Amino acid sequence: MKPSVILYKALPDDLQKRLEEHFTVTRVKNLSPETVAQHADAFASAEGLLGSSEKVDAALLEKMPKLRATSTVSVGYDNFDVDALNARNILLMHTPHALTETVADTLMALVLSTARRVVEVAERVKAGEWSKSIGPDWFGVDVHGKTLGIVGMGRIGLALAQRAHFGFNMPILYNARRHHSEAVE
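Above: the chain's sequence. Below: its structure in token form.
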């Protein structure tokens, strides 16, 4: 018999299929007391818990006496009562690097689109304001060689700094709780 898992966050179909190859999966929409009560047997027998953005606290863990591991499909684990998990020897996993590059790409896109006024210009084009050529008020500003300030130099801040510095020759200023030698390099 396969171990049972509660899944409280939709996964891509291919990952869902892989999960179901190894586990008996009970999908629920959330971890509310009503949902837990509706699926009481599944929660009582579950050895795994997988999802994100829902509170996992001591009250929930009381309903899951066989739980051995839980994982969030996100970076942060603020929704988990780590002390309650530790007291029950339940393993907590998270995905700290999963979105670093994606978020850094998005941030760099926002820097570029803000500097070049992409959204504003797109609206003007839709309004029919682009007839022959555009004037300087449409250009925005270059980012190449401009200084970029970053608040927080964690994984995402460092990835953004690398894109800006190596891709656009931007000097980087940052504020963080500690010195980051890799950011200086």
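The chain has nine helices and seven strands.
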